[in-house]
Design brief:
It is an enzyme of class 1 (oxidoreductase). It comes from Mesorhizobium caraganae. The protein is α+β, with helices and mostly antiparallel strands. It folds into two domains: 229 residues, FAD/NAD(P)-binding domain (3-Layer(bba) Sandwich); 121 residues, 2-Layer Sandwich (D-Amino Acid Oxidase, Chain A, domain 2), CATH 3.30.9. Helices cover 38% and strands 28% of the residues. The chain has 13 helices and 20 strands. A hairpin with a 2-residue loop joins β15 and β16. The longest helix has 28 residues. The protein is globular and about 60 Å long. It starts with a strand and ends with a helix. It binds 8-demethyl-8-dimethylamino-flavin-adenine-dinucleotide and P-hydroxybenzoic acid (PHB). The site of P-hydroxybenzoic acid has 9 residues, from loops.
């Protein structure tokens, strides 16, 4: 079998790239290790930058997003017992973010792909990448006990942090940068109205907490827990008690509790692999970089990689130019590192580290107090949060 581009991974980056390429007549096959249901069962990001929404519009996959997504003009920072709103829209000259779950984005893109009759092979095992150092790359995989081979022009590694693509890059050509944090996020999804109509990021002596949502009647909450925490140690009651203790009085009082229908712990890490191109293999999204979720950047960065790679591939197929592909890695990484910095900074300012102590707590509160009262500092946070320009 032959196609233009084999996309490894059917997460948001693989699906979005496939949809955009389909729009200009470039053929793709997506190989996904898991089942469709498994991919859709993962609860992850919730905040979309305007640029991500625009890209989903270009892919023709934004109708439900516009009908059901919640545009947010601000966020609040909670610390020292108080709640301080940042007006993102006023601070950025009219921009906003949209709250719409990654699960829904993935669902919409999968539906579009199916409707267009494009091929996705789910439960493809032993995916292996070959020949991408030369002109004739190909990918092999097994499905239902049968081995297959697909020849292609390029391979897009959209297979997440644990995928095969980054691991296939020649070791001496790859440089990685990593920071792990000594805590994780315990997240809960519950069918209850959110405590606030916007997101609340809370710094507290007991640890970070976040109030988020998926809709007007579905809430997503997180509390910081030690990196080695056991999920079984957290009953719903314990979670709600801990969450409320970390929030300012007025927000805590507004928390509506109810049974959780999803509860998980995500580790926090910053990771970047360089470069993003190895001959005819391109790394995209989590396959190349991970950020802690505190800046809501993971999914948005995946989308920005897709934007750059799509533009480069369009240039290749429509104009027969390699210029865009040659520039992809440096262009995408410049934006990635800024988001890595922002996510690291938000994480450092809002979480309790083992060595934070009383001094560190006061320093964090002083920084937050400065931040919410300085127009310049608020603007710096706001323009990063809504998404830096491409
Ligand atoms: P994904 O979503 O990980 O998709 C990769 C896909 O590749 C498949 N795959 C393979 N397929 C074939 N062969 C192989 N060998 C394969 N290995 C893997 C996987 O099954 C999967 O379907 O990467 P993508 O598309 O780059 O998208 C990136 C986003 O998913 C990610 O940045 C965010 O979800 C990060 N993230 C969060 N970001 C936020 O902005 N806010 C959040 O609250 C948030 N929570 C999270 C997260 C990531 C998490 N991970 C990765 C564990 C919570 C978690 C738990
Ligand atoms: C979420 O709703 O899951 C969410 C929102 C904002 C973040 C991280 C996660 O910074």
């Amino acid at each position: 079998m032959r196609t233009n581009i084999v996309i490894v991974g059917s997460g948001p980056s693989g699906l979005l790239l496939g949809q955009l390429l389909g729009g200009i007549g470039v053929e793709t096959v997506i190989l996904e290790r898991s089942s469709r249901e498994h991919v859709l069962g993962r609860v992850r990001a919730g905040v979309l930058e305007q640029g991500t929404v625009e890209l989903l519009e270009e892919a023709g996959a934004a109708a439900r997003l516009h009908a059901e997504g919640l545009p947010h003009a601000g966020i609040s920072l909670a610390f020292g017992g108080g709640l301080h709103r940042l007006d993102l829209t006023a601070l950025t000259g009219g921009k906003h973010v949209t709250v719409y779950g990654q699960t829904e984005v993935t669902h919409d893109l999968m539906d579009k792909r199916e409707a267009a009759g494009l091929t996705t092979v789910y439960e493809a095992s032993n995916v292996a990448l070959h020949g991408f150092g030369g002109e004739t790359p190909y990918v092999t995989y097994d499905k239902d006990g049968v081995s297959h081979r697909i020849d292609c022009d390029f391979i897009a590694g959209c297979d997440g942090y644990h995928g095969v693509s980054r691991k296939s890059a020649p070791e001496r050509a790859l440089k990685t940068f990593e920071r792990t944090y000594p805590f994780g996020w315990l997240g809960v999804l519950a069918e209850v109205p959110p405590a606030d109509h916007e997101l609340v990021y809370a710094n507290h002596e007991r640890g970070f907490a976040l109030c988020s949502m998926r809709s007007a009647h579905r809430s997503r909450y997180y509390v910081q827990v030690p990196a080695d925490e056991r999920l079984e140690a957290w009953s719903d009651d314990r979670f709600w008690d801990e969450l409320r203790r970390r929030l300012p009085e007025q927000t805590a009082a507004a928390v509506v509790t109810g049974p959780s229908f999803e509860k998980s712990i995500a580790p926090l890490r910053s990771f970047v692999a360089e470069p993003l191109r190895f001959g005819r293999l391109f790394l995209v999204g989590d396959a190349a970089h991970i950020v802690p979720p505190t800046g809501a950047k993971g999914l948005n960065l995946a989308a920005s990689d897709v934007r750059y790679l799509f533009a480069a591939l369009r240039e290749f197929y429509l104009d027969k130019s390699l210029g865009g592909l040659d520039a992809y890695s440096a262009k995408a990484l410049a934006r990635v590192w800024k988001a890595v910095r922002f996510s690291w900074w938000m994480t450092t300012m809002l979480h309790r580290f083992p060595d934070t102590g009383e001094f560190g707590q006061r320093i964090q509160e002083a920084e937050l107090d400065y931040l919410v009262h300085s127009q310049a500092a608020s603007t710096a946070l706001a323009e990063n949060y809504v998404g830096l320009p491409y």
